[in-house]
Amino acid sequence: MIFKQLFEPVSSTYTYLLGCEQTGQALLIDPVLPAWERDLAEVNALGLTLAYTVETHIHADHITSAKKLKETVGSKIAGPALDQLPCTDVGIVDGVPLAMGSIELAPLHTPGHTDNHFAYFHAGRLYTGDALLIEACGRTDFQSGDAAALYHSVRGTLFAYDDDTLVYPAHDYEQRRVSSIGQEKARNPRLGGDRTLEDFVRLMGELKLAYPKFIDYALPGNRGCGLCPPDVPAHLQQYCGQIAESRQG
């Protein structure tokens, strides 16, 4: 398998490129609109053809490049079937693998950050979206977020994997690139150790995080699989309204 981790600095988003050497196909997990040309250049440089873009959830801090990449190279858009977005080509269902040549992503419904959030497992790696970040987790105060659900998603589903399983999140704001299940069990200050459900729900309820600056543009944009809304302020047009200051975790 070919693997590359790509970073978009405005929203501190990681995009993951997975390539199948047998078929020459590639997929991108959580691609970001301003970086679509960079991502496509990476795919082409590896001699691959982009077959899929795969979303972990409807993002609130950036707009996906899924639609742009589909229009450019014909890649299929895959996202949680629970979101019922008419622009998706493949509806991701819990426990039903997404196969691309020798690569099979195992989808894991991990609600809490959003109600329809998914993580993906493949070859010793967990792509955890915003559910589990490095020594953090996604916020639970919008988009049908639910702290209790997130607790069970992380500790019941993700923490069930072997300690050596690598954790690749959708974001990191401290320039960290990878963690492991063992590390997060031991060191995650929100969900690790002996944190109880009651403690976690109280902690998340007391965070008092600022309202995400771009959510009002990102949500409709991502429900269209990558449409840049026409009313995005001019000073944000370069990134189609992405923001740098409002952390999602």
TrEMBL record:
SMART domains: Lactamase_B. Keywords: Metal-binding. Residues 12-171 form the Metallo-beta-lactamase domain. Pfam families: Lactamase_B. InterPro entries: Metallo-B-lactamas, Mito_Persulfide_Diox, POD-like_MBL-fold, RibonucZ/Hydroxyglut_hydro. The keyword Metal-binding applies. This is MBL fold metallo-hydrolase. It comes from Thiobacillus sedimenti.
